[in-house]
Amino acid sequence: MGDMFRSEQMALCQMFIQPEAAYTSVSELGETGCVQFRDLNCTVNVFQRKFVTEVRRCDELERKIRYIETEIKKDGIALPDIQDDIPRAPNPREIIDLEAHLEKTETEMIELAQNEVNMKSNYLELTELRKVLENTQGFFSDQEVLNLDTSNRGGAGGDDAVAQHRGRLGFVAGVINRERVFGFERMLWRISRGNVFLKRSDLDEPLNDPATGHPIFKTVFVAFFQGEQLKNRIKKVCTGFHASLYPCPSSHIEREEMVKNVRTRLEDLKLVLSQTEDHRSRVLATVSKNLPSWSIMVKKMKAIYHTLNLFNMDVTKKCLIGECWVPTKDLHVVQKALSDGSAAVGSTIPSFLNVIDTHEQPPTFNRTNKFTRGFQNLIDAYGIASYRECNPALYTCITFPFLFAVMFGDLGHGLILLLFGAWMVLSENKLSRIKGGGEIWNIFFGGRYIILLMGLFSCYTGIIYNDIFSKSMNLFGTNWVNNYNTSTVLSNKHLQMSPNISAQGVYPLGLDPIWQLADNKIIFLNSFKMKLSIIIGVLHMIFGVCMSVFNFVHFKRYSSILLEFVPQILFLMLLFGYMCFMMFFKWFKYNGFTSNQPETPGCAPSVLIMFINMMLFKNTPPLAGCKEYMFESQPELQKAFVVIGLLCIPWMLLGKPLYIKMTRSRQVAHVKHNGELTGNMELAEGETPLPTGSTGNESAGGAHGHDDEPMSEIYIHQAIHTIEYVLSTISHTASYLRLWALSLAHAQLSEVLWNMVLSMGLKMPPYTGAIGLFIIFGAWCLFTLAILVMMEGLSAFLHTLRLHWVEFMSKFYEGLGYAFQPFSFKAIIDGEEEE
């Protein structure tokens, strides 16, 4: 089978690159994104590798770019979008100019920022001084002026001793944070024992912190006191509470003159600040045009040197050796990238790429596109496929939305999902540019094609169920005819319509809309959907078991077809496949148009009771005139099926272990030659190197081999596998009944929401009903979207995911591989943007 049905074939390659061409060659490989490198320096400390200096240099450049980007965002300057023009990795010589430019820009920004903080601090101090001088006008009266020392300037200057001797009051004025005022006032009271008179006034407008720019609320205060000792205590308290003290003349004229001078200085400082801001904005605007390109270039350069640290230097120090996993389809792409890298630097010695054999399990790589990527992510969330085993993502593209639609069958709700998915698909180029949309939005957008198909299939099942917002569509009329007169219908509440009289053929598509009015609607739909879910489930499991055959054939495990697949498919088909057959046979045989009483609908036996009697070898007496079985040889056939199904259990339990034991006894011990002791021995001149790995597919299939396991573990493993399969066949069949249960719940919730909400508005009087219906319709739309579309849709999605992970994939899927993680610049840049 092709690579579309399983992971791609991988090759372990060895690269030989000249040191001068190593940077450009790895850069070309990063652009292609199809090589996963292996670390050949596992024993070497990361700080002792060859290119650690270059990595640190890139870290320093990233730090400078982050600092400049922070300053740009602080000023609200928008960075250009360069998703359509992503630059390539820079030349090592070009990075010197970039480093010098970033160094110059960072130094200039730091100087501007420091000068701005200093000027804003001066501006804040002058603003506080102006506020102090303006708010203290009311603190001084004519009597206070006569009693104050005119030489006092905020408690400083003048002969304080003489002033205190004369009995004049001293004072200090300043500004303090508003939240510290009460503690400050309490402390002044305590240290002075009530001998300090404090006046304060809250500033109406907040001031801006010069460092952070956050608003701060402050209060102007004036503390009057007497005595030099008390003055020193007050200053210490102000220092402890981070209060700013300012000179404040006691003379009204001097205060007015000082206010004028301060306002003049503030105007000058504001002009200087404005010019500084303009210069800063011009510098940042110039840098912002190239900053995204610089950031990507530095990231690519750092990734290249990180990758080069995985290489090993040969003994002569003239060649770099690296190992990598490459898809075989991309070998020519890698070889071209190596040649382009060598040609870019004018290297005369070409780089070599050798494919080597190995016993290691290669990584799993499933090539996807934007349509299949979402479905592949669902499979990978369960477990990465083992190398080259069947990939269920291809079939999940159809089975997943179909099983979802069986549970979510409503034309109206499916149309909502379809429109939402179609909007994301048609606008994906514009929506993909949205950054910072959140994790939930990224999940929805990543699964846009899943949502589109789920909505499309839900519309289909909604047509089959004939259900749109809990109502039916009368597209083709009805095939049921009323043969009773009006009086008979009105007087008989339990009147029934016989199919052989009232039914006229088969309805063209889906369910007949007349079932919307029938009293036995739920009984009929329960029977229909229950049988439908069992049939779909058994077919789904049979398909899963058959998928294991392709794995057995690919890995050349032909014995497993007879020892595992055959008993498994027989056990499933003879028991539950037979039960599905009886459902179809019952539908075809029993009808209301026959005159033979045993074939009338009243004599139709219960398939469930018949299946239980089949497993227990019991009989149920039929009704009078009816037959217990549907056909003559049914009891003998059922006994044969049960016996064969029971024989399949020891077949699965003992077949494979006995086969392994027989094949081991026939094997001849293999004696290794001296040349096979180690793969690192140096070959003599003229010798031909032997392959170090197996070329067969047996060892490439993940955890398929049992060569090294003892027989006791093989018996235990097979016993667990057999018990799990037998029990899971029964439980998984019952698990598919969730298709019926959720479909019934969704239909009933939709009907309840219609009857309890929207129908209330439709029954209101004409005039008030118009307004009421408008409000009620809005509530009905809200509940429909929130409950029936989002909550019920999420529930159906999770149940569908469980049916695929447990019931379907457990039949053939191992999921023991590890993902192929290529060195790709695109993946690195996208990953950092998501973080």
UniProtKB/TrEMBL annotation:
Where in the cell does this protein reside?
Membrane
Keyword annotations from UniProtKB, A to Z: Coiled coil, Hydrogen ion transport, Ion transport, Membrane, Transmembrane, Transmembrane helix, Transport
Q: Where is this region: Disordered?
A: 684-706
- Signal peptide range in chain numbering: none
Q: What is its main location?
A: membrane
Q: How does it sit in the membrane?
A: Multi-pass membrane protein
InterPro entries per record: V-ATPase_116kDa_su, V-type_ATPase_116kDa_su_euka
- Transmembrane segments annotated in the record for this chain: 402-426, 446-465, 532-553, 565-588, 637-654, 770-791
Q: Coiled-coil segments, which residues?
A: 95-122
Pfam families named in the record = V_ATPase_I
**Hey, which family's this protein in?**
Belongs to the V-ATPase 116 kDa subunit family.
PANTHER family assigned to the protein according to its UniProt record, in alphabetical order: V-TYPE PROTON ATPASE SUBUNIT A, VACUOLAR PROTON ATPASES
Role: Essential component of the vacuolar proton pump (V-ATPase), a multimeric enzyme that catalyzes the translocation of protons across the membranes. Required for assembly and activity of the V-ATPase.
Give the protein's recorded name.
V-type proton ATPase subunit a
